[in-house]
Amino acid sequence: MLWAPTCEFLWRESNLNGRPVTGTQGVSITPGNNTKGSWVEILADTVITQDVYWIEICISSIAVSASAKDSIVDIGFDPTGGTTWEALIADLFASDAAPYGGSNSSGGVWYAFPLFIKAGTALAARGSVNNATVGTAQIYVRVYGRPSHPELVRAGSHVDAFGIVAGSSRGTVITPGTTSEGAWTELTGAVTTEDYWYWQCAVGVNDGTMTTSPIHVDLSAGDASLKDVIITDDPWFVYASEAIGHGLAISPQNWRSVPAGARVYARAQNAGALDAAYSASAYAVRG
Amino acid sequence: MAVTEIFSGTEAISTTEWSLTTDSAGPDSEASDHAVQVVIELEDATYNDDLELKMYETCRSGGTQRLCAKWPMIGDQRTFISPIFPMLWGWDFTLDAFVGTITANWSIRSLGTPTLYVDGVETVSTTEHSLTTDTAGPDSTTDDKGIMAFLDFSTLDDGDHFRVKVYEKSRSGDTQRQVGAPFDIKDGRSDPMLLIPLQAFLHGWDITVDKIAGTDRSIEWSLRAFA
Fold first, then answer.
1. Where are the domains of chain B?
2. Record: fold of B115-225
3. Which residues of chain A have a CB within 8 Å of the CB of B83?
4. Which of B9, B132, B186, B200 would suit a FRET pair with B118, their CA atoms being 20 to 30 Å apart?
């Protein structure tokens, strides 16, 4: 075995100031109806005083009872600290994202990425909802830096999304299994052209009448006949209040090197009876 | 491999950045050739203390000294030991405290004398450039070397995106393959020197740099050999 030092992140910031707020954690954005709304700054350049190596994003409070609200959110950046936004992480799937806290919640929909963002950068968010009554979304972001052993930390330069159908603010349609796993469904549509090494996956439901049930998502890379499973049983929680939650599930299985030339697949398995219109997406870090 | 202590000292570190090679305000510029490891005893550090070890080096002889890496340390500390780095031309390690005054005892050890294998400078565009032959790459070098690479990306600005790849053959008769995932450098950075860890090269190796997006930039490099 190899002796290795520990690595701690000795700096962190977020857009939470003070007491946590039920249901409205972070900065409010107004999505467009199947088009991206306006950028809203979520973390100022004056707050990001150190180089960032890790980012966590919580999207919450999109859900409305009896409404189907598939949704996607972009995280944008301006490395000069201004307001000329460019997508840093595009199309995070946050279908019917639950409120932050309260019953039937799971605290919204969380993502986490090992991504390098230089000090002095400003961050923003914008969104798109597949519902004429767009409502709002809350974006809570946390960033981490000052690794005590930077030689042990790899932080990527880009995050690519797979499976997104932007015109419907959703992922690629899948049919979850119930008593067994659902079928693998390709998200990429073509072989990848980059080497990726860190992964997240997502599932959504576009249904105005949902059934409370956990749903587990698997992610794999390979081809039509052979697949390497990257993530198994990523837990998402669907609630009868037409809300979906996904906790901050940082897991060792998120790290997997997949050289260029692969196709990416998702499948899911639901605990109860199926709702309508499931779709899935994936996110991979490169660089 | 003989290990020798080449610098040592003790100092109450406060808000003045302190050179561990000259035991004075730093950074300074040490030009002796050593494979260096730094040991720092910080038994004096306590809760809420905040200090940082920084490593500096020039990429090429006569070049500008750049920040290579930072190791922050907050609160109560065990003794710190750095990885081993081949230093040649204008290097230093410094300590700087942001909170507290912390007495540090340090020792810089040499594990031998590294040598320059090859260096260069190139205005890199969208043609992948070999650092071993200073031409379009990758090429296939068969020199048997333990190499650590230094690349200076201080010319990058926001919107620039460059990519570094490593290649090698497993056996002499095998096909050259890319080693691991490429490493991308995007936008301007406060620590612009990229250090690629020591690798034992034999059969058909190269390190390349390529522009993915942005402006063509002048990139300097040096490949340092341990053996």
1. 4-110, 115-225
2. Jelly Rolls (2.60.120)
3. 151
4. B186
